[in-house]
Amino acid sequence: MTGGYTDALGTPGPELADALAHTDASIAKMVEALRVRDLLDSTLIVITAKHGQSPIDVSIVQKVDGDAVASLIDGVAPVASHIEDDVALYWLKGAASARAAASILLTPPAGGVDPFASVVMTTSSESSFLTMFGDPSLDPHTPDVVVQPKHGVIYSLSKKKNAEHGGFADDDSHVGLLVSSPSLEAGVVTTEVRTKQVAPTVVRALGLDPQALDAVRIEHTAVLPNLF
After folding, report:
1. Is 33 exposed, middle or buried (0-12, 13-18, 19+ CB in 10 A)?
2. What whole-number distance in Å separates Cα of residue 70 and Cα of residue 88?
3. Rg (CA), the chain
4. What distance, in Å, lies between the first and last C-alpha atoms of the chain?
5. How far apart are alpha carbons 33 and 13 in whole angstroms?
6. Cα(127)–Cα(44) distance, integer angstroms
């Protein structure tokens, strides 16, 4: 794979640099279209990403066979379905076996596949599991086991991949967020924010009430700071 970053500092390689330049040019076209229509001064522009990729540092990439990890679990806790990236989700045929699955993931037998699990989450091991993912006993879409592997590990043997997404690593979850408007002074906001705050911010910018959004009320999501 020739794309992606060239070092741990996030220096883009030629293909990524070209993609970033293309995106920059596309944004410039949208800004110019707003300017031509005399809409730029009244438009709030928000640029962000839905996720990052992990790991950024290609020197720490370690690939593990996801199917082999599923087979490891299946030996002690029959697996109904599974999905792996730089996170792994397992649906078990019996929820009661989640503890056994977690145990073998954290202490795999010698000579077999090593999942390099950093954190294994189940309803019994994590008090926040139900809040984060839901209750697998009530919703069949909710996995019984969620695995965050060690930084740099991806559950894929594909030669085309040096990174994946979906996990909880900083490289996955820390993304750029740029807000632009003629009414704003240039600056850097160091307050921790989340991309889910973009939605109520846009609603507020339109002169509407963010509290009209069910998710905003349920999750107590605030608008982005220092804007209004």
Report:
1. exposed
2. 9
3. 21
4. 44
5. 30
6. 39
CB atoms near residue 105 (< 10 Å):
24
Q: What is the DSSP letter of 207?
A: T
Query: pLDDT, tens digit, for every residue of 118-136?
Result: 999 999 888 889 988 999 9
Sign of the CA dihedral running 95, 99, 103, 109? negative
Asked if 186 contacts 212 with a C-beta cutoff of 8 angstroms, the reply is: no
Distances (CA, A) of 177 to 45, 48, 181, 196: 11, 5, 14, 11
Q: How far is CA 110 from CA 79, 113, 115, 150, in A?
A: 21, 8, 12, 18
DSSP character string of 41-103: GG--EEEE-S---B-S-GGG-EE--HHHHHHHHHTTS-EEEEEESSSEEEEES-GGGHHHHHH
**pLDDT tens digits for range 154-184:** 999 999 888 999 999 999 999 999 999 988 9
Helix, strand, or coil (residue 218): helix
Report the pLDDT averaged over residues 102-122: 97
Q: Give the C-alpha separation, 217 to 199, whole Å.
A: 12
Helix or strand or coil: residue 132?
A: helix
Judged by DSSP in three states, 153 sits in: strand
Q: Are 54 and 171 in contact (CB under 8 A)?
A: yes
d(CA 208, CA 20): 33
